[in-house]
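Workshop exercise sheet. Pairs work together: one partner reads the sequence aloud, the other fills in the structure field after running the prediction. Swap roles for the next sheet.
Pair: D.N. / O.F.
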Amino acid sequence: MPRRNYEELSLKEMLRKELEAGFSDNNRPISTTTAQDDASDLLPLPMRVKTILGIADNPNRNAGNMLFFVMYDIESNKVRTQVAKYLINQGCTRIQASIFLADTTHEKYDKIREDLAEVQACYENHDSILVVPISTDYLKSMKVIGKNINVDIIMRNRNTLFF
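Structure field:
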């Protein structure tokens, strides 16, 4: 039996169909374990920092590209999971459970921003999604607070003390 060719749905259409089918979970409390499951692909912190610095220091980085963070606070587990999958499929790098970094063209930046705005508008919620452009200089000056991590990875310099 031949396989049917299914048209790829936009993020907005996928979420609209799920909501129409009654798969919304907006009324359920978000548990810590469910929220953590969304970030199952999260690398260890030192590797995430190296990835971020690798993007900022890449000599072959397209000068026309745009660096930006996408950060969200989404109540619905389904919507949050779909948004995370969408961002990963768009080439964004997961930095934290609900923070992604992208290095992409202005056109793709506009598409991601428009798609996220459509998702935000398609259902009643108290969610927020931030899309924040950033420069490589600001990215390089990033500090990690609250985790046991080697500061040399961030600062890219080694201090030698003489006594």
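Discussion prompt: The CA atoms of residues 15 and 79 lie 7 Å apart. What would you look at next?
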